[in-house]
Amino acid sequence: MVRGCVPRAEIKELPSRFKAIAKWDANHKLGPAVAVRAMKRAIELADEFGTGTVCVDNAFHYLWGGGYVMEAAKQGYIAYTNCPAALAEVVPYGGRRPTLGTNPHSWGFPTADTLGYPIVIDWATSVIAMGRVQQLAREGNSLPPNSAVDAHGKPTTDPTAVKALVPFGRHKGYGLALVDELYAAYIGGGPPTLRHRGAVGGEKQCCTFYFQVTHPDALGCGGFGMDRSQGTNVQAVLDDVLSGNDGVVLPGQFEAEAAERSVRNGGLLFSRPELAELGKIAAAVEVPFDPTSFKPALL
Q: If both were cysteines, with which of 9, 164, 197, 294 could 27 make a disulfide (CB 3.0 to 4.6 Å apart)?
């Protein structure tokens, strides 16, 4: 069954024989709303059991997984999530037909006390995400080499000619993309090439969510070198990784800097091409939109 987002849908809690694992049927409720609740529930379970997992079936895509793990990490937890992409747009390594989604993975680590921001590792398993392809097309820029193919299966750097993407790291990205599909398959998702395509009778054609949160106290075995605490041990590891590597950026640093710019400007920041696209959408739904009302950003 193919369905879009269902307004005012109610989440159904399903039976689970495992106390640290919750199972939900989202009934196609708005994905981000479900994801926020799922991460909150996973945190509650982690507080009680040391780790908490929420599996969500019949879901509408939750968009940016990094945002959910970032919020959990800000609250002091280690968090992970995955959700298979809405469409199969990636050719598996060695293949020629797109049968995988861009299938991101997102991790968050509570390093704010150490760094001033949480480490957030969040990426699509393709060389480039389809959203980035669309952004480059809007801005008139080229793709990185060997990140996408055209209708003939030939590599292209023209974002307007892209018909499929390729996994990063060859077999490694392919394997990580497959991880998302396998989690989805165990939760209840169907074949990726049918997801959000034309209806196929009796088939599951929706996304699934997987959330896992761990309390740092549940990991610490107490044997840190040089009598360090868990927190100072994390600091020592990060210092060692960065030593002699001036200019290296940690995952999550760009997001933290972008958040600071938004706070400094009192709201979200948009590029001119993005405002132009918003104008087109507003015109299509007959909503007034004046791009000149936006003030220049202070960067």
A: 9
